[in-house]
Write a structure and sequence with these properties.
single chain, 526 residues, mainly alpha, Amino acid/polyamine transporter I, globular, disordered N terminus
């Protein structure tokens, strides 16, 4: 056989391997997600009812477990970061980082919270402050008072900083450590080998675990897309006077889905790096502008008091499944947040692992846990503090805006009152779309990769798989926003997030146990 013929044979083998589908993962996951998309078109009410019932059942039934595992993850991350385990280098003692620090942090930050902090940096503190959906009913805090502002800030810090980032960073660490230091596959199942051995990466268990991870990622992505549709749609209505409705949402679905689909089809490395750099610079500019222009002293005082209120109530908030604070506060906000963070954790874990080669575990935790948490506290302190100050001093009535237009509408009224608001608003809209596209293209690629046999992390899965998943996710997101908005305007989106989180919750619990075993019982591989 000639060398050329031999190369052709090898190429054919590789191509065939790339094209083979993991039927045990692809078909169960696609029948649920793709079937949900079809059901949404044919009978959107039935899809809404199924999702709503799943949302209520999962968070009422598993809220206690979400709260316990979040606290355990936080404690474990603290131990790993500040113990001798933190000195271990991902990839071995001679490994060197691929990305410089600023690029690494930009990719980690924007990949995880890009749309979230913009969406809720203003809206969430105002919703708590006004008890718009009954959040304050069982807290003993009177809505609209100075104490309510402090409570709102503290609760926002709690939901958006050290606890949720502990989930992301822990999942990412176990993936990175197993892949770079123990030379296992870049997968969710590989993180469980310390508990079950290599057999967990083969056969039916591998299919079950990866199917649950695919479902969580797909539903979490649909949830994020739905929130983006609702947010941008409310902005177009508030600023440009074009009413929201199915036609607008359909157009936005097409634009956003096409953006992240095309990005995914072209490949990711340079795209993610470039978009992350743009996104993080916009975040920095917006943050520093508001620090200068906003009520800085009020934000500093309220943030400091909010931190005190959070620390004072740490265990009560951290272990409350809804019986103390009530469902409007705990189930519809904190547990929803935990569900979507956990739904994203497997994908984010793989993403964070890939970009962290050559870093020590302590450096990994600084960039993926500590710095993003501090950034969120500063962001909510500045944006939320300014919004609360304006609300208290009748500069703009954000409470009424949210009551009339939905849970994500306050942002645009807030931006409209900023200097150069007419310039800032379209920039924020474009940034939201690009931020979502940055995260979504990697998610679609990861889903397609997990549905493909014998494919390495640096190979591209088949384009038809990416396209199929992107269209299914886009369809479900549109249906849930257009026909299941509910009182908050994003109720249907929250249903999806809870379903995604509950699909992978038990896998995440096993990852936490696996981390305990690999770092504190087994011999640590340097």
């Amino acid at each position: 056989m000639s060398l050329a013929t031999e190369k052709e044979s090898v190429t054919e083998i590789v191509t065939d391997a790339k094209r083979k589908t993991r039927k045990g993962v692809f078909w169960p996951a696609f029948l649920i997600v793709g079937g949900g998309a079809v059901l949404g078109i044919v009978n959107n009410k039935l899809l809404t009812d199924i999702s709503m019932n799943g949302f209520i059942a999962s968070l009422r039934g598993l809220g206690w477990l979400y709260q316990i595992i979040s606290i355990v993850a936080l404690i474990l991350v603290i131990m790993v970061t500040f113990s001798k385990v933190g000195n271990v280098r991902l990839g071995g003692e001679n490994a060197r980082p691929k990305y410089k620090f600023s690029v690494w942090f930009a990719m980690a930050l924007t990949g995880g919270i890009a749309t979230g902090v913009i969406t809720y940096g203003v809206n969430e503190p105002i919703i708590y402050y006004g008890s718009i959906y009954g959040e304050m009913e069982k807290t003993g805090v009177e809505p609209g008072t100075p104490l309510a502002a402090i409570y709102a800030m503290g609760r926002s810090f709690y939901n958006w900083s050290f606890i949720p980032y502990a989930m992301y960073s822990l999942s990412g660490l176990v993936v990175a450590y197993m892949y770079f230091n123990r030379e296992k596959s870049l997968s969710v199942t590989a993180t469980l080998t310390p508990l079950f051995g290599d057999k967990v990466t083969k056969g039916v268990w591998a299919s079950i675990i990866d199917t649950l991870s695919v479902l969580a990622i797909a539903l979490g992505l649909a949830s994020s897309l739905g929130a983006g549709l609702s947010l941008v749609g409310s902005g177009i209505e508030a600023i440009y006077g074009i009413p929201q409705g199915p036609v607008m949402w359909l157009g936005l679905t097409f634009v956003i889905t096409a953006t992240f689909t095309l990005s995914s089809l072209k490949g990711l490395d340079k795209g993610i790096r470039w978009l992350s750099d743009i996104n993080v610079k916009v975040f920095y500019i917006l943050l520093f502008a508001l620090i200068i222009l906003g009520p800085t002293l009020f934000s500093l005082r309220t943030s400091t008091a909010g931190l005190a209120y959070w620390l004072q109530n740490f265990w009560g908030w951290g272990l409350d499944p809804g019986d103390i604070g009530g469902e409007p506060l705990v189930m519809w906000w904190t547990l929803y947040d935990w569900a979507i963070w956990i739904a994203y954790a497997p994908l984010m874990g793989i993403f964070l692992a890939v970009i962290s080669h050559g870093r020590t575990i302590r450096e990994f935790m600084i960039v993926n846990w500590i710095l993003p948490s501090v950034f969120s506290i500063i962001w909510f302190g500045v944006w939320g503090g300014t919004a609360l100050h304006w609300q208290q001093n009748n500069v703009v009535d954000l409470v009424t805006t949210i009551k009339e237009s939905g849970a994500v509408a306050g942002l645009w009224a807030f931006l409209a009152n900023m200097p150069l608001g007419s310039v800032i608003i379209p920039i924020v809209m474009i940034t939201l779309i690009l931020s979502f596209a940055t995260a979504a293209d990697s998610m679609v690629r990861t889903i397609a990769t997990m549905c493909t046999v014998n494919i390495r992390h640096d190979e591209e899965p088949a384009n038809w798989k990416k396209l199929l998943w992107a269209l299914s996710i886009g369809t479900i997101a549109f249906v849930m926003v257009a026909y299941a908005g509910g009182a908050q305007g994003v109720d249907g989106v929250k249903y999806l997030a809870a379903l995604g989180g509950s699909a992978v919750l038990f896998v995440f619990v096993l990852q936490v146990v696996s981390a305990i075993k690999m770092f504190f019982i087994d011999k640590v591989e340097k």
